[in-house]
Structure formats: structure tokens, C-alpha cells
Automatic annotation (TrEMBL):
<dbReference type="InterPro" id="IPR036961">
    <property type="entry name" value="Kinesin_motor_dom_sf"/>
</dbReference>
<dbReference type="GO" id="GO:0005524">
    <property type="term" value="F:ATP binding"/>
</dbReference>
<dbReference type="InterPro" id="IPR027417">
    <property type="entry name" value="P-loop_NTPase"/>
</dbReference>
<dbReference type="GO" id="GO:0003777">
    <property type="term" value="F:microtubule motor activity"/>
</dbReference>
<comment type="similarity">
    <text>Belongs to the TRAFAC class myosin-kinesin ATPase superfamily. Kinesin family.</text>
</comment>
<dbReference type="Pfam" id="PF00225">
    <property type="entry name" value="Kinesin"/>
</dbReference>
<feature type="binding site">
    <location>
        <begin position="4"/>
        <end position="11"/>
    </location>
    <ligand>
        <name>ATP</name>
    </ligand>
</feature>
<dbReference type="InterPro" id="IPR001752">
    <property type="entry name" value="Kinesin_motor_dom"/>
</dbReference>
<dbReference type="GO" id="GO:0007018">
    <property type="term" value="P:microtubule-based movement"/>
</dbReference>
<dbReference type="GO" id="GO:0008017">
    <property type="term" value="F:microtubule binding"/>
</dbReference>
<keyword id="KW-0505">Motor protein</keyword>
<feature type="domain" description="Kinesin motor">
    <location>
        <begin position="1"/>
        <end position="97"/>
    </location>
</feature>
<keyword id="KW-0067">ATP-binding</keyword>
<protein>
    <submittedName>
        <fullName>Armadillo repeat-containing kinesin-like protein 2</fullName>
    </submittedName>
</protein>
<keyword id="KW-0547">Nucleotide-binding</keyword>
Amino acid sequence: MAYGQTGTGKTYTLGRLGEEDTANRGTMVRAMEDILAEVSPEIDSVLVSYLQVVVRRSRCNHYLSELHKTLLDSCISQFTATRDLNCGLANLRYMVA
Ligand SMILES: Nc1ncnc2c1ncn2[C@@H]1O[C@H](COP(=O)(O)OP(=O)(O)OP(=O)(O)O)[C@@H](O)[C@H]1O
């Protein structure tokens, strides 16, 4: 999990692929590597979901508690879900105006 102001390095820390040097891989990519090393394609299936929360105003605590309530109530309809059909990655995006 990463949180912070825009441009502070969340994607850099979590998502770098490290295509030229594996030492540069991000945390999320390393975790996926470990998981995929343990699965058998014949018998296992792996589902990946990704939740992105965008808070546009400065009253973060108010919106984060709203999000917490939403998650507890399982109001999934408030999320915009997109799915990359090529890789199966689900991107759940919760927008707070
Ligand atoms: N530790 C770091 N070393 C070098 N460059 C960095 C580092 N962290 C971030 N950057 C660079 O800073 C820029 C912004 O980083 P990044 O896109 O990861 O931010 P972010 O928090 O994910 O932003 P947003 O919330 O807008 O998606 C990128 O060009 C990234 O390469």
C-alpha cells in the first residue's frame, strides 16, 4: 500500500518493472514474482485487484473515513471498475470530488 501527494513516488516505489535491471523492480512487481513462482498454471488461478483512491480536496480525514464506511458497507457500486482484458488486471478507482 502506498499513499501520498501526487508525484511523491507511489508508482515509482510499487510499480517499476525493472526491465533492464531486476534490482530496480518495485514492491508490487516483486510480490507478484514471488506469488507466481509458487503457482502451478495447471491447477491454480491468480486474480489480481488494484484499488486506487484519489482524494481531490484537502479534508483527507473526512474522505478517508467516508471510504472506510463505504468499504465496510460493501457499496461496491461507488467504485469505477475497469478490467484489462489482456492481463486480467482489475483496477478499482474510487473518486472523491
Ligand atoms: N525515489 C525516487 N528516485 C528517483 N525518482 C523518483 C523517485 N520517486 C519518484 N521519482 C520520480 O518522480 C516522478 C513522480 O513519481 P511517481 O509517478 O511514482 O509519483 P506518484 O506518487 O505515483 O504520482 P501520482 O499520485 O500523480 O500517480 C516520476 O518521474 C518518478 O520517476
